Amino acid sequence: MTEKEIDTQAEENTTQDLEQEQAQIIMTWFQHINEVVKAQFPEYEVDGQIGNNPIYGPMFAFTLKQEEKFTTCGFFLNEIMRNFQTNPNAGLWLSSFFVDLLRSPESHPLPNPPQTEDDAKELLDKHIVPYVATAVREEFPEQKIYVDLELHEEHGPVLEAGFVAVQEGNNTCALPLQYLMTLYLLNRDPAEPMIQAMYRLYEENNLGQA
Q1: In the predicted model, what is the mean pLDDT of residues 121-132?
Q2: Is pLDDT of 210 > 60?
Q3: Residues 102-119 as b or e (16 or more Cβ within 10 Å = b)
Q4: Chain centroid to CA 144: how far?
Q5: For the chain, how are helix, strand and coil distributed in percent, rounded to 5?
Q6: Is 62 helix (H, G, I), strand (E, B) or coil?
Q7: pLDDT for the residue 174
Q8: Contacts within 8 Å (CB) and 24+ apart, 171-175
Q9: Torsion sign, CA atoms 114, 98, 92, 59
């Protein structure tokens, strides 16, 4: 075996070790969160699954079942890790995403992903983007808000929002359409992160004191 072959073999072994280590971390977190969901909803059967998004990485989805009704909600591993490492009420944070869905009398399976680019465009143009724009405006009824689509050099198409009253400095927030779509497909509210970002702008610019 040549020196180059030895180096290649060593690199492959290192890569395999890293992949196994990452897989173990993902599984450990999955098992932990599965137990947290069971503890938060003891009256439900809980089933979980692991997925992976090519952009946003590992994802977990958990299904709560009671008799014939079931509700599924998904999460990004990175947001779970961030919350469980910094938020003392992480269990409540996690369970809050299920609460509104559970109030509804229907089952809530994960939405079917769009199968074509046209399907994806229609879902964004006719449902997700108008919904987020309306939700943001309703959250700040006393403010004039603009919402627009832009093309970001790194993130591609983004939905941008801002307060008309703020002309200078940090006056807009933007989220990739792909991220909003992914939230929707996880049975999550795609308006929530935009509203949170707008609240940060609101506070930074002292709009409540205007």
Answers
A1: 96
A2: no
A3: beeeeebebeeeeeeeee
A4: 27
A5: 50, 25, 25
A6: strand
A7: 94
A8: 171/201, 171/205, 172/201, 173/197, 173/198, 173/200, 173/201, 174/150
A9: negative
